[in-house]
Each structure stands twice: as structure tokens, then as C-alpha cells.
User: Fold Heme oxygenase from Oryzias latipes.
Amino acid sequence: METERKTQAATEQTADRDLSEQIKKVTKESHVRAENTELMLSFQRGQVTLPQYKLLLCSLYEIYKALEEELSRNSNHAGVAPIYFPSELARLESIEKDLEYFYGTNWREKIVVPAATKRYCHRLRQIGKEYPEFLVAHAYTRYLGDLSGGQVLGRIAQKSMGLKSSEGLSFFAFPGVSSPNLFKQLYRSRMNSVELTEEQRNGVLEEAVRAFEFNIQVFDDIEKLLDVTENKLQKILTFKSGEAKTLHVPLIRMVLGLFLALATVSVGFYAL
Assistant:
């Protein structure tokens, strides 16, 4: 019994030092907050709208472009090389395919990017140059999160938006990963093998919390942008019949997709 207790204690102590477990612990509260943003609740309720999803894709494109370019540029760095899986995880090409499906071949001229997304991308570029080992926090947060819920969220999005096929949903597909569970185990093992000083480890943990905060801000900004656009549409579509009346929100949501496709939004750039 004593030997078993010592073995269990040693196992728990090792787990406590695993970077993946430490990130999971320090981001627990932020994870819950992210799941309770309006955008994520829409997914959970099976009520995500086409305007919501299109704006999300726009932000994901910018985020993954920054993340994957920095990972590629630092692929030989000791803190990045163990978790660099471009063939299995790269999302940029898939997102581009989805954007072309929804916006057309000139989608680059039509995408709308909130300020929070630009701040997120600025941070990714910054750490890619100054603290490459911190990229592991963002890669883990994004890739494993997408891989974990990808298939489920893809089905929810397809049903709630009334899509007849999987076109427009390439982001959720990981053809290079045959077994998500086994791959996640491999990824965590590779993460835990990264050699970090205590200062670097603390920095990675802080960056993981920051990654969740950035995602929460992006989700919130998307909803704010939708609200602002809906208010503009309400004014445009207001008509008089005795007294002023406005079209109901469901109809506005239907028209919103076209409006966003034609709109070009200029947002400020804010450095951290």
C-alpha cells in the first residue's frame, strides 16, 4: 500500500509539472467565460447565424495567418519545433476556401476585421519576434480547441445555417488527423517535452491566459459589430405607416449577410 501511495504521489507530482496540465488549470476560469460569450452560446444552442459565422471566419483568417506565419518562421526554435505540425493542423488554407465560398473570389476585399482581432494578431507577431516559446500557448489554445470541438461545431453550424453540404465548413475538418484523441495525446506529450526555464514556463502560462482573453474579446467584438450593423439596417429599412415601424430582427439578420458582404469597415489599431 505504501509503495502504491508513493507511486500515485509521484505520478500526480509529474502531472502537476506537465505544461499542458498547468495551462489547463490556469485557464479554467477564462475557458468558462469564453464558452459563455454570446457567440459561443449561439453555437451551443444550435442558433449560430450566417452573419455570425462569416464574421468569425474573417477573424479566424487573420488570427491563423499571424499564428501560422510565426510558427513557420520559428519552426526550428527549441520551444516551437516539438509542437509544429503544419500538415496535420494548418487552418489557413481551409479558412480561405470557406471565405471564398461565402464571399466569392474577391473575398479579400470584403472581409471585416474587428479591432480585437487586430490586437490579437499584433500580439502573435510580437511574441514571434521576441518570445517564440510563448507561441506554444496560442497554438495549444487554438488548435486543440478547434480539434476537440471541430466535428460537433461543424454539424451544428451546418444545421443552424441550413447548409445542404459541408461546403463553407472546411475549417472544422482535419483530414490530416485520423484520430483526434490520439493526436491530442501526442501533442500534449510534445508540449510537455519542451524545455523551459521557470521564468519561461511562467511566461507561457501567462500567455495562455492572455490567449483566452484575446479570444473572448474577439467574440465580443463580433457581436458588437453585428449589433451596430443591425441598428444601421433598422434605420435604413424603417418605414412609416401611420407611425414609424421597423422590420423585425430575424428579417434584419437575413439581410445582414448581404450588407456585410458589401461593407468595408475600418478599425483602429491598438498596441498592447
